[in-house]
Write a structure and sequence with these properties.
It catalyses: [phosphate](n) + ATP = [phosphate](n+1) + ADP. This protein is of the alpha/beta class and about 700 residues long. Helices cover about 35% and strands about 20% of the residues. The chain is globular, with a radius of gyration of 27 Å.
Amino acid sequence: MQITTKDKFDSIIYSSDLVSRDLSWIKFNERVFDQSVKENRSIFEKLKFLAITASNLDEFFMIRVGSLYNYLDYDKERVDYSGLREEPFKMKLMLECQDFHKSQQEHFQKNLLPNMEESGFRLSNVKNLTPEEQEYIKSYFTKAIYPMLTPMVYDGYRTFPILMNKLLVFGIVTLAPGEKKENRKLSFVQIPANIPRFFEVEREDVVIYIPIEEVIRENLISLFRNVNIESVNLFRITRNGDFTLEESEDMDANFLEEVKRKLNERKSGRVVRIEIEEGYSKWMINLLKERWNIQDDSIFKVDRRSMMDFTGLWQVIGNKRFKDKLPQMPAPVHPLSYPEEGTEDIFQVLKNRDILLHHPYNNIDSILELIEKAADDVNVMAIKMTIYRLASDSRITKALLRAAENGKHVSVLFEVKARFDEENNIREAKKLQKAGCFVIYGISNLKTHTKLMLIVKKDENRITRFVHLGSGNYNEDTARLYTDIGLLTTNEVLANDVSEFFNVITGHSIPDTYDSLITAPRDMRNQLISFIDQESENAKQGLPSGIFIKVNSLEDSEIIYALYRASQAGVKIKLIIRGICCLRPGRENLSENIEVLSIVGDYLEHSRIYHFHNNGKTRTYAGSADMMVRSFDKRLESLFRVDSPLLEKQLMNILSYNLRDNVNSYRMLEDGTYEAKVPAEGEPMFNIHREFFNLNVDDVMNVKLV
């Protein structure tokens, strides 16, 4: 039997005790794609998840493949967790991406396109419309599109144009009458980003979506008069968007200029992928390959019967005509620790007890209410917070502006290195700065990812500090879609820790220790490893032990090997890792006691919870940090301890429900692949994205983690 290159790669990869980060990410996107394949979902849900996988893949190529090219282009050495060096690893990665791309295309053509009309819409080209509709489209092209199109020819007299990242582009090969073939020219027509992806034709019983490229294709002759069009080629490029900021130590205006310069570089970064319609001009593709130094494995072919760039499907999904076709999630419920939400003064409530919020089952209004009340309360003296990503029309920015206008001290750290939100954060930060807020644009070479807020209030000669610590962004939009944890408290121990941490962020302070916070880059990795090692010692001594962790990603090798040691010592370890997992579970004599699950469904799982049995003296933490090298070494992160019996039980119950889920859950196998977890015969379905809406205190207080 002949051994293929793929077989050789797979043999090397399987022999490693660690799973490749990037290959693990591909498996994550496959789980998202599986949501689009599920038979019980409506076609609108299927389109939504297909669009998400396309957006995910765009970012993957920009950042992860872009990073790989940084090594390849500059001859830097890199050995992946899989054991493969740069070039072999790129070959393996592209094989996986090509297979995934084919799955997307086949699913769209075979399962989605044929079933659209029965749901009230369809995709079509211009030729299938009525004469009246065709005339209307031609008028639309002439008035609205034609003036925005710019043919850009490339020849010996004109430089090669800069084609924009992720835009649809026509490559048109032309020849003047009487000219020889060697004198043909290549022109580009880029479709502007501000033109809707589809032209919509509303009929009584159906909405017809005509891809904008088909509208332009029908009328390209108007841009190339009196020349012969040899071929018309639709393609789309993805550019390297990965960069590392070399910030100066003094955070002055030059830092912001550096961020802006790097953002502009994204527009001209090296090409890492070409998506192109089949039937393309070989002459053109060879020219592009040479120009951009790209190989065949990075060229992704799209069938003309399919569609390029599935992210455009959001236009269909978002049509108000189909609003009732998407599943409606239940309305948020009151937090178990704050049943009187909306009827009591939250400042008074927090003086007596802590509140744990679990979004989106509990809405974000309690946090917004606290900030908005603080902005107007004459007794509030100061508001401090970190901001990573904001909603498009943020109530938080408005409240902070009002607080500054009301004479309060407002300190805000805006992380301007929040990927793809840099421009929005710079814009919002400048608004606050102009209003008199103390604004920090990041810390040295670290990214501030921690989610903290501190409100200082004076009542009757007493100062009270109101604190919020969370796993998610202060963002009203994503709080409806992401599952996150937030703690509201006036606990003095936590308040002292948070005050100290803000002094680190806004000033020049190195605290001796924290009582209830674990922070990075200071000591988070070592602290977590010490907790894991303690479980190992307990197991060796025959004492009860157990580790239950829920995070987005597990990639740090030091943590992974600590978990392997604990498994070998007999500790039962259950990990709920939504995305990347570089740990290999179930390997003999290494990780037999480790189970890894991934939850992918209607909500994006974003909360991070760490629970250690500790011989009955439980340690339970939540916060913003995943178990990744970047989280421990390159970010300001925090995990906060939850001691309150009800609140700790709530966190334990979240872990327990995740382990019970048999609708959204996937089990990781030793080889790095995943299998869907399904209800056993006679077992009822348990969908956490529904069950958390029905939670009661008795359920929580009786929780047991096994």
